[in-house]
């Protein structure tokens, strides 16, 4: 795998030798001082250019970056229409393990984009066209304090959707159970865990994409309990994980509600848990009746 120095030399060398490229800036995790770097970090690079069309039509351009293993043209995806005249990208995975997410942006577009994203760092500005920017920060991604209404809505959504999980498990409809768990109930659990982190850090950190850095602030017991809520397609394992999810949510929601002065609706949680347990017992009885 090419080294970081080799990659920056390549990226900036291409820009310096191409008059069509006016400036280069980088965004993403490599600009975030709070992220511990590793060899799998992408190079999220933006070339500021006069016209994107020249690069779109130049089929040899991306070959300068190395031997490509496979790639994606996100702006060619019909499900996500984009303004290719002002911004066009290539997501490139190279055979040596390096990945570059490269975008070309028109000057006018870049002048707005670089101000909107605080995780940006200017690498090259040949004609001094980019505005001065503050040091890169992940402030825009910090966990924010919820309102009382947001907190209560999250509690209600979590407990309400558990009844769908219960019915799905009783019917042994695992695809539905997985979707309901991961796209609805788990979303609210993670939101609540994020709020706990916000409280203990005075709302001054980001837990990362998909809250992948939660482990940095949760206790080891909480983190392991959270991991145990992920289950396979075994019905018994799913039931066990869902009950752990409920226990974790209740404990964290009680803490968050108390610390924020919002309270926590014990009756709502207890009623939903009672329904879950009742449906679980129905499942167990049905199991005994099977041949």
Please write out the topology.
Elements: H1 4-16, E1 21-27, E2 43-49, H2 52-57, E3 68-72, E4 87-94, E5 99-106, H3 107-116, E6 120-125, H4 148-171, H5 174-200, H6 220-227, H7 235-260, H8 266-289
Parallel strand pairs: 2-5
Antiparallel strand pairs: 1-2, 1-6, 3-4, 4-5
Describe the protein.
The protein has 291 residues and is α+β, with helices and mostly antiparallel strands. The protein folds into two domains: 4-139, Beta Polymerase, domain 2 (2-Layer Sandwich); 142-289, Nucleotidyltransferases  domain 2 (Four Helix Bundle (Hemerythrin (Met), subunit A), Up-down Bundle), CATH 1.20.120. It is built from eight helices and six strands. It has helices spanning 4-16, 52-57, 107-116, 148-171, 174-200, 220-227, 235-260, 266-289; strands at residues 21-27, 43-49, 68-72, 87-94, 99-106, 120-125. A hairpin with a 4-residue loop joins strand 4 (87-94) and strand 5. Helix 5 packs parallel to helix 7 and helix 7 (235-260) packs antiparallel against helix 8. The mean pLDDT is 95.
